[in-house]
Amino acid sequence: MKLVCTLSLAALAALASAGCFSGGQKWDGDKQAVLDKIDAVCADGTLNREYPAGSWDDDQPITYDWDVTTTRRVHLGVWLNNIWGNTVLSTSDCKSGLRKEVDGCEHGGQSEYTHWKYRADINAK
């Protein structure tokens, strides 16, 4: 019984970290500034906009890069996977998707939710 519980907890922990980057810079003291910037670019038309129908082709994301400090840069990216036509990313979906990559991943991450793929990454400049 104890072995089953341990294995189940290990499996749940692996699922929770799916999509997280395993190394690189951490959000550290810049986390709240990044979350605030996500809120802004997901509300001002930068990322919450119409996306053309397409695929997960890494050459087609809508991105936003921001120097959070003089030595660190944040990269945000959103892709649409929708073969039926252009789709508008809502402000709430934009915020929710990108915030999961910051709140749930200490080094940033990349995940897919419904027809959307989100990436939030922080790196040294």
Automatic annotation (TrEMBL):
Q: What is this protein called?
A: Uncharacterized protein
